[in-house]
Fold this sequence. Notes:
By secondary structure, this protein is α+β, with helices and mostly antiparallel strands. The protein folds into two domains: 6-87, DNA polymerase, domain 1 (Orthogonal Bundle), CATH 1.10.150; 98-235, 3-Layer(aba) Sandwich (Cytidine Deaminase, domain 2), CATH 3.40.140.10. The protein has helices spanning 6-19, 26-36, 44-54, 57-62, 65-69, 80-97, 106-117, 154-163, 184-199, 223-235; strands spanning 124-130, 136-144, 168-174, 203-210, 215-217. α2 (26-36) crosses α3 (44-54). The relative contact order is 0.08.
Amino acid sequence: MEHKGAGHRQRLRDRFLSAGLYGFHDYEIIELLLTIGTPRKDCKEASKTALKRFKTLQGVLEASPRELSGIKGIGPKNQFGIKLIKAVADRYLEKRLVQKDVLNNSKQLFDYLYHSMRDNRRESFKAVFLNSKNKVIRSETLSKGTLNGSSVYPREVVLEALNHHAAGVIFAHNHPSGDPTPSAEDVSITEQLIFACRLMSITVHEHIIIGDNKYFSFADQGYIAKMNRAYEKRIKP
């Protein structure tokens, strides 16, 4: 016997196959993802409840397995599609960066960072490591923290850069509040990272703070150049 909503599910799939996600509501996208791991149950109400709980489609994708399991109709098995699509999207955007000169193609860098960090409800700190031709070697999340901050240690950052044989690095972190304005701590850690990396001949090209539909660039605002000048004055005999 067909389960309740089987015809609706097929119509969703047919719509997607014919026109992609055009015209889909966010709850319908969540519903479609839930059906991957839910062969015999209607997922509409669970998807609507999840969207109401986590506010946005991105919020649902970023929710932890434990949080998703708190939604009636979503369990450890049928959240598979939600977690899979987020991981695939992250991997896809990351792979598009590899061997690209992101200093001359910043749009892809911003697309990747914004997608992977904008809706994190806890602060995380990411590094994009570059070779001597400014092409991406790898990107890594170096730390995940609380709602208000993450712990970043310059020594460990330098070790990671050396492990990847990086000549340059771009840093990024998110502000869960949505406001990308840098705090005093953000400015301080950026200066510490620049000084530590310069000692090992590693260039810090940028530090980007991701907010809600906006970002703050330390390079664009002149901070990176100013901190490099401060470093040169400090080491000058």
